[in-house]
Amino acid sequence: MALTGRATAAQAAAVPAAGPIATGAHVPALVIGTGYGGSVAALRLAQAGVDVHMIEMGMAWDTPGSDGKIFCSTLNPDQRSYWLRTTTKQPLNYFLGFPIDKSISRYTGILDAEEFSGITVYQGRGVGGGSLVNGGMAVTPKRENFSTVLPSVNADEMYNTYYPRANAGLGVGTIDPAWFESTAWYQYARVGRKHAQRSGFPFVFVPDVYDWDYMKQEAAGTATKSALAGEILYGNNYGKKSLQKTYIAQATATGKVTISPLHKVTSVAPAAGGGYTVVIEQINTNGDTTATKTVTADKVFFAAGSVGTSKLLVKLKATGALPNLNGEVGKGWGDNGNVMCGRANHLWDPTGAQQATIPCGGIDNWTAGGAFAEVAPLPIGFETFASFYLSITNNPNRAQFSWNAATGKVDLNWQTVWKQPSITMAKTIFDKINTTEGTIYRTDLFGVYKIWNDQLTYHPLGGAVLNKATDNYGRLTGYPGLYVIDGSLIPGNTSVNPFVTITALAERNIEKIIATDL
Ligand code: FAE
User: Fold this and answer.
1) What is the distance between the terminal CA atoms of the chain, rounded to a whole angstrom?
2) Residue whose CB lies within 8 A of the most ligand 1 atoms, among 32, 458, 488, 507, for a mutation test
3) Is the Cβ–Cβ distance between 139 and 206 less than 8 Å?
4) Which residues does residue 103 pair with via DSSP β-bridges, in sequence order?
């Protein structure tokens, strides 16, 4: 089952050009979305002999722009950066108290900053989903925390079989400890470690899907820079083993998987002759609908991500397309407790002008304080004397998606004040470090005199929770042949970065579905 993949530009080209789906088509298995859940489903179904069509609202990301690169850098975002926006919406949106967002052309860019009333949810858009934009941090939760992550799932099976399978399939690796100690590119992380340890917190190395050997070559000047050139949030041109280079490359290599990028599923309903009727809008790079297609599928896998799947299911239940979905649909949504902050270091404690974009370590205070803090980079090319952190916290608040008939949209009832428990938990780490070091919080990174970025998440989870909205393997209640297989199955928190758990759960569920339902 192991998939490997060295991250080279040539491999990205291994993903074949997608043939767009035609109206009237009939497909045995239709997968909505090409992130972690969708890619696992497509590969394993194809290996079992099933023809699969994947529908993806974002672009293929296989063609260079006028600068010769597929993706733009965080230092110079252009139209490729954001999904249908005319101004960037950078997570770190101020510097020295000044706003740093800029105008861009409206385009089907790679990162969606989707705004709900109390929170902005960042998501990847394109073939590969979140794997295109994320930091690649590939963390398996500690086993003692698993019963709260997925209470209805057998931990032995996950830790013996599905987590190892997911880690192999994703190509997870760890930084060479000797190189970490010596390279200028991780000075910021060594400073983060020093400050953590001086306050008595364990610093743990975090595995990643970035090709660490490639990064060494970047540092040596023998390979084109990516992680060492500010690339991350809007895609990595080299080095990162996104799903395009692992699961999706393997899936398309079977010859049984076709992908339609710039196609968005808007409806799924039972078809008269069995199976399901799926309505799909083809869009152009302005986001305008250029064609509406109707196809049928024997089986449909919802893998549009926590937000995408939840929005679809809530709408389809409320508008009568799938009225028998149960009352759990839309519930149990959490933000994985994400909260960001920065600390101001002393002038004798610089974090370095050179910073690799790929985080490689974190501060673990989960058991005592409910927080796990990634030591994150500020790769802006000059010394900032700042340490920057994205904390994952044990925030208990959960929100619900609901259909708003007046606007014809799905709302999420998260409130910004619900981040307060996350701030309290993150402070168990950073108040102590500030006291030990005699330092203070940065107040200039997220607004004017604003310490915490409490208005976003990178880690949406839940909305179609396993064993509640679905059975214990993701089968949607009331509709044989409809499945959920993405982050919406996970009830709001994974205690660490989520994609390894999403992948492992998808591996577990698709194995059962292939064995019993096909
Ligand atoms: P996801 O990867 O979001 O894929 C869903 C796909 O469905 C997307 O490609 C959508 O465009 C597509 N889609 C949505 N609606 C439709 C529709 N109606 N029709 C057709 N297509 C549709 O879902 N996690 C980690 O574990 N480690 C990290 O270091 C990390 N860093 C992150 C950094 C950033 C900036 C962001 C945004 C996320 C990060 N994450 C990280 C989270 C991780 O990427 C996320 O949990 C997974 O991508 C979710 O996987 P899913 O399969 O649920």
Assistant:
1) 20
2) 458
3) yes
4) 87
Residue 374 identity: E
Selecting among 231, 459, 507, 511, the annotated active-site residue is 459
* pTM beyond 0.90, yes or no: yes
Ligand 1 centre to CA of 63 (Å) is 21
- 374 catalytic? Reply is yes
Rounded distance from Cα 371 to ligand 1 centre (Å) = 22
On whether the CB atoms of residues 424 and 397 are closer than 8 A, the answer is no
| Rounded Cα–Cα distance for residues 132 and 123 (Å) | 9
| Span 209-259, pLDDT tens digits | 999 999 999 999 999 999 999 999 999 999 999 999 999 999 999 999 999
> What are the pLDDT digits (tens) for 318-358?
999 999 999 999 999 999 999 999 999 999 999 999 999 99
Residue 267: strand, helix, or coil: strand
34 Cβ inside 6 Å of ligand 1: yes
281 is catalytic: no
pLDDT at 13 over 50: no
Distance 353 CA to ligand 1 centre (A): 30
List of residues 6+ apart from 232 with CB closer than 8 A: 74, 133, 135, 357, 358, 379
Q: Could you tell me the pLDDT band of residue 19, with boundaries at 50, 70 and 90? A: confident
Could you tell me which of 166, 119, 125, 176 has the C-alpha nearest to residue 417? 119
Q: Which of 109, 138, 139 is nearest to 124 (CA)?
A: 109
Query: Which is it for strands 289-302 and 26-32: parallel, antiparallel or unpaired?
Result: parallel
Please name the residues in contact with 9: beta carbons below 8 A apart, sequence gap of 6 or more. Answer: 237, 238
Give how far the C-alpha of residue 408 lies from the chain's centroid of Cα atoms, to the nearest Å: 26
With a 6 Å cutoff on the Cβ, whether 130 touches ligand 1 is yes
In this structure, the strands spanning 276-283 and 263-270 are: antiparallel
DSSP sequence for 196-232: HHHTTPPEEE--BSB-HHHHHHHHHTSS--SGGGT-S
The verdict on the CB of residue 30 being under 6 Å from ligand 1 is no
User: Among residues 56, 218, 374, 507, which one is catalytic?
Assistant: 374
Element (H, E) at 268: strand 263-270
Q: What would the pLDDT profile of 182-198 be if each residue is shown by its tens digit? A: 999 999 999 999 999 99
Domains annotated on the chain, with CATH: 9-517 (3.50.50.60)
380/141 Cα distance (integer angstroms): 31
Nearest atom (ligand 1) to Cα of 460 = 46
